Amino acid sequence: MSRSNRFDPEARFEQLYSSTAKDLLAFLVRRTSRPDEATDLLAEVYLIAWRRLDRVPAGDRSRLWLFGVARKLLMKSAAQERSHQALVGALTQELARLAAHGPVIPDDGVAERIRVGLDRLPAKQREVLLLTAWEGLKPREIAKVTGTTANSVRVQLHHARQALARELRPPASEAGDAHKAASEPLRSTPRTG
Q1: Cα separation, 129 vs 141, whole angstroms
Q2: Which terminus has fewer CB within 10 Å in the chain: N or C?
């Protein structure tokens, strides 16, 4: 490396790139599953080199330093891929488990009444109720998600639950029939008139 390159960062970087890029790309292509992954890693190697140009050794040692950076990036990429695959595998298993046990949908009209009841709720109440029921979030967590206070979430949740409970109550005629049937004594023999 010439003395002037040592003091001119751009010239030093250009010289470093032109003397090593072809070999580094070949190294990365042989160790990755896709060419675009290799080029992404190559770009990251040179980004690190640019940011740490003052730490890049001089002469032939710079080539070895870049290969070391590339190797570390490959190991990091492989670890991330393994982690990603493990997450995808776990999610796939969970979805398969849920599909096998599918949701039990009542056939007595309750599902439809729930849907209608949810549709009738004001948007904020519906959102808070669904974040609680489906996502399992606590009021303080919902407050962070929605940009409100935990107290406001609790109030909205209380109102939503009351409104939905009213929607799910059986109609007055059904409730009256059920109450009447429960209050009549059971007879073992029919009445004769």
Answers
A1: 13
A2: C
Q: Considering only CA atoms, which of 28, 22, 56, 57 is closest in space to residue 44?
A: 28
Instruction: Look at the block and give the residue holding tokens 């290969």.
Output: 67
Model-level pTM greater than 0.85?
no
pLDDT single digits (tens) 142-172? 988 888 999 999 999 999 888 888 877 776 6
Amino acid at 176: G
pLDDT tens, 44-65? 999 999 999 999 998 889 999 9
**How many domains, the chain?**
2
Cα–Cα distance measured from residue 178 to residue 182, given in angstroms and rounded to the nearest whole number? 6
Token pair, residue 129, equals 């109720």
- The answer to whether residue 176 is domain-embedded is no
Cβ atoms of 28 and 74 closer than 8 Å: yes
